[in-house]
């Protein structure tokens, strides 16, 4: 029995993680779960999984939960960042699966690492904003960072049994999102509802917008550097609209090893929880007769400048990626609230990056301060431009 502390239990990754736990009750137990503010869903999860702790990040949602909680409930309810840190470092947890979206995941993930917990990582922002710090601490503590994103899980699997010095290139695949093949002039006036319609994957709102701008792939490029110890020149992105090849590794002898499968996030979730073993599933099997055509395209960085900005931040190093992420989080929120246009996202990100004075080897506290500065700065830009 492996005990799982799940940060982000009501989101897309979180609910699919609980489905893996539900299907394998003798192998996994959810000892703690956490949500932002989805009170009713969290109550259903508490009743089904009976965790030791449940956390609600927003205080008003915590107060609402306490009023609705069934009488006699044995689960202790916490709230805020203190609650997340507590369940990330609790003695009972073997693995912490971080599925929260955004910068909120960094502090509890660091707390889990400091307390020797293996990390099943679905929170891109943790490595995007503090990759060197996180990986250095994990190595020092002897903690495994196991990727949950389908692309990074595919790379992780394609590296199994191989010598890292033989790696020539990592190739991340991208579906292309809802606007694949479109040109810039066609996307100037797109709406959030159009941007949210991902063709292959069921994802949350923020990640769906990131997919439509290709920022999601940009963040994955930065994350790949830290997970696999490669440089920008050794990371390529190819658009693969079928989402069957989840990513690939090219070796110096010209061999390419790829991981393929039907689009189902439960597979990389389960693999991160069972690694180095594999466990039988009832997931859909890939039928090569139905998936007989696999195509690959070069990403269009002129139409989708967010991917270009992510590559530039990776090349510059320092704290540029933390600023990229913070500005993007704010701007995606503004786009979802219908306050800015689609191309205002990369426009204001670039303006914020231009104003940033980067810092090398930043501490956790410095990264959090830079994140706060970037959010304040981009909001000031919006106020003066709108």
TrEMBL record:
Positions contributing to NADPH binding: 10-13, 37, 123, 125, 204
Pathway: Isoprenoid biosynthesis; isopentenyl diphosphate biosynthesis via DXP pathway; isopentenyl diphosphate from 1-deoxy-D-xylulose 5-phosphate: step 1/6
Domain 1-deoxy-D-xylulose 5-phosphate reductoisomerase N-terminal residue range list: 4-131
Every 1-deoxy-D-xylulose 5-phosphate reductoisomerase C-terminal domain range: 145-228
Catalytic activity: 2-C-methyl-D-erythritol 4-phosphate + NADP(+) = 1-deoxy-D-xylulose 5-phosphate + NADPH + H(+)
Keywords: Isomerase, Isoprene biosynthesis, Magnesium, Manganese, Metal-binding, NADP, Oxidoreductase
Cofactor(s) annotated in UniProt: Mg(2+); Mn(2+)
Domain DXP reductoisomerase C-terminal, chain residue ranges per copy: 260-376
One Gene Ontology biological process: isopentenyl diphosphate biosynthetic process, methylerythritol 4-phosphate pathway involved in terpenoid biosynthetic process
Binding of Mn(2+), residues: 149, 151, 220
EC number: 1.1.1.267
Gene3D superfamilies named in the record: 1.10.1740.10, NAD(P)-binding Rossmann-like Domain
Residues holding 1-deoxy-D-xylulose 5-phosphate: 124, 150-151, 175, 198, 211, 216-217, 220
GO molecular function, one term: 1-deoxy-D-xylulose-5-phosphate reductoisomerase activity
NCBIfam families referenced in this protein's UniProt entry, alphabetically: Dxr, PRK12464.1
Family: Belongs to the DXR family.
Family matches, as PANTHER family: 1-DEOXY-D-XYLULOSE 5-PHOSPHATE REDUCTOISOMERASE, 1-DEOXY-D-XYLULOSE 5-PHOSPHATE REDUCTOISOMERASE, CHLOROPLASTIC
Its biological purpose: Catalyzes the NADPH-dependent rearrangement and reduction of 1-deoxy-D-xylulose-5-phosphate (DXP) to 2-C-methyl-D-erythritol 4-phosphate (MEP).
Protein name in the entry: 1-deoxy-D-xylulose 5-phosphate reductoisomerase
Organism annotation: Peptacetobacter hominis
Classification of source organism: Bacteria, Bacillati, Bacillota, Clostridia, Peptostreptococcales
Gene: dxr
């Amino acid at each position: 029995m492996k005990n799982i502390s799940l940060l982000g239990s009501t989101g897309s990754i979180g609910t699919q993680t609980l489905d893996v736990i539900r299907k394998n009750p003798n192998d996994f137990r959810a000892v703690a779960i956490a949500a932002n503010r989805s009170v009713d869903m969290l109550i259903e999860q508490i009743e089904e999984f009976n965790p030791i702790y449940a956390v609600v990040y927003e205080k008003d949602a915590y107060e609402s939960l306490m009023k609705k909680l069934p009488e006699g409930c044995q689960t202790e309810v916490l709230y805020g960042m203190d609650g997340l840190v507590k369940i990330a470092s609790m003695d009972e947890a073997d693995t912490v699966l971080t599925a929260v979206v955004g910068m909120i995941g960094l502090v509890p993930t660091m707390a889990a690492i400091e307390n020797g917990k293996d990390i099943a990582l679905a929170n891109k922002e943790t490595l995007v904003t503090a990759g060197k710090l996180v990986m250095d601490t994990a190595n020092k503590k002897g903690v495994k960072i196991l990727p949950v994103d389908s692309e990074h899980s595919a790379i992780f699997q394609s590296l199994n049994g191989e010598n890292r010095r033989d790696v020539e290139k990592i190739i991340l695949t991208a579906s292309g999102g809802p606007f694949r093949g479109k040109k810039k002039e066609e996307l100037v006036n797109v709406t959030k509802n159009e941007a949210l319609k991902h063709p292959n994957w069921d994802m949350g709102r923020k990640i769906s917008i990131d997919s439509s701008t290709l920022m999601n792939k940009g963040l994955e490029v930065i994350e790949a550097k830290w997970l696999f110890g490669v440089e920008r020149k050794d990371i390529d992105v190819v658009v693969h609209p079928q989402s069957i090849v989840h990513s690939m590794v090219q070796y110096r002898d010209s061999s390419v090893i790829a991981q393929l499968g039907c689009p189902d996030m439960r597979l990389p979730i389960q693999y991160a929880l069972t690694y180095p073993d594999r466990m039988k599933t009832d997931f859909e099997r890939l039928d090569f007769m139905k998936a007989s055509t696999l195509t690959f395209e070069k990403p269009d960085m002129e139409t989708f400048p967010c991917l270009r900005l992510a590559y530039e931040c990776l090349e510059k190093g320092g704290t540029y990626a933390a600023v990229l992420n913070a500005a993007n989080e704010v701007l995606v929120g503004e786009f979802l609230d219908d306050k800015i246009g689609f191309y205002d996202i990369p426009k204001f990100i670039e303006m914020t990056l231009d104003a940033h004075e980067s810092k090398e080897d930043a501490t956790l506290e410095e990264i959090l301060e830079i994140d706060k500065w970037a959010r304040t700065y981009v909001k000031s830009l919006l106020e003066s431009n709108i």
